[in-house]
Amino acid sequence: MPHKVTLIPGDGIGPEIIEATKRVLEATDVKFEWQIGTVGQGAQDKFGTPLPDNVLESIKKNKVALKGPVTTPIGTGFRSVNVALRQSLDLYACLRPCKTYRGVPTPFENVDIVIVRENTEDLYSGIEFAKGTKESNRLAKLILETTKTRVKEDSGFSIKVISETASRRIVKFAFEYARANRRKKVSAAHKANILKFSDGLFLATAREVAKEYPTIEFEDIVIDALCMRLTRNPQQYDVIVLPNLYGDIVSDLCAGLVGGLGVAPGANIGDNIAVFEPTHGSAPKYAGKNKVNPIAMMLSATMMLRHLGEIKTADKLEKAIAAVIAEGKNVTYDLKSDRNQPAATTSEVADAVIEKLKKQGG
Ligand code: NAD
After folding, report:
1. What global pTM score does this model have?
2. How far apart (Å, rounded) are the C-alpha atoms in residues 168 and 172?
3. The ligand 1 atom nearest the CA atom of 334
4. At what angle do helices 346-360 and 14-26 cross, to 10 degrees?
5. Which of the listed residues 21, 277, 282, 349 should we mutate to test ligand 1's pocket, taking the one with most ligand atoms within 8 A of CB?
6. Where would a tag sit more exposed on the chain, N or C end, judged by fewer CB atoms within 10 A?
7. What is the pLDDT of residue 53?
8. Ranges of the chain with pLDDT below 70
9. Residue 157 and residue 150: Cα distance in Å, rounded?
């Protein structure tokens, strides 16, 4: 039986890396039935909404999606499709492994960190009040009455919301992931010394959950200290669980440690549904140039294969990708130590991975 998967090409560089990834998946022995979903500006133009119901319905039915990046207009226009998708499907855990592959130019070796980012709340709750509106004036008044703090009249507000429920389930997810994948340590990052009622609640909940997993080491760390330590000695970290905004930033930082966004895969996971997508965005300036690295997207596909129970095929695909990287011949510009060296195109990387798969026999 083929696996039914919703395939969302996205925009910018999305369609070309999705195409490359679809080709390598179809070169394995696993069969897929793709249902294509259009989101973003294309969907806005066609259906009057950037996230049409038919796409949500398709993901709910198939329970699995492979997604390319989608552009979010800055400041104006529609809200982020990526955030809306995670919130409407309650994909509360964002899983981003950052691992060094031999051959990737990076100052660090043996990094193998998994970022577990809370995906539904924090400063991404979408609760915002624009400067000078009736609502923001009312909020300023409430703040004055309740805290005696006078905010500047020309302030805008973005509300940081952290709940015990969401904190508990994300920390539990991190520990369950650690247990299932034989990981030894979970670190919870926060700024609880300053943000007592939001990050403080996250930290208190994390400490409580950690007690349920006595065989896994637990530590908590202030977010700024974490960033400094990651850039000095990233090997000391294993699984890191963070609230949404810090998770967003630290997963890019960790992607940088292991060679950049071109090799950083990811997944957004809920109780029944999982959407696999790379950490990077739609890199509009490279759109249509057949130039960017499809490996982050392909590694996201290996995560999808594991999620679907196709462990052997996932291992084979990851091995084929690792072999292409290690050889260093058919890799895109971002994986060349000297950017003036000739580099492979997006589709040539796919050809090379397919070649390695064939050599492995499937
Ligand atoms: P970006 O990740 O798209 O690109 C930043 C830079 O990283 C690029 O200019 C390029 O130099 C490099 N890069 C990214 N992907 C690469 C790849 N596969 N191979 C080689 N180099 C790569 O970040 P941005 O420019 O901040 O965002 C562009 C758009 O993407 C924005 O609209 C943003 O909202 C959106 N975005 C979408 C997602 C998503 O769909 N999940 C995630 C992040 C950003």
Report:
1. 0.92
2. 6
3. 20
4. 10
5. 282
6. N
7. 95
8. 75-77, 362
9. 14
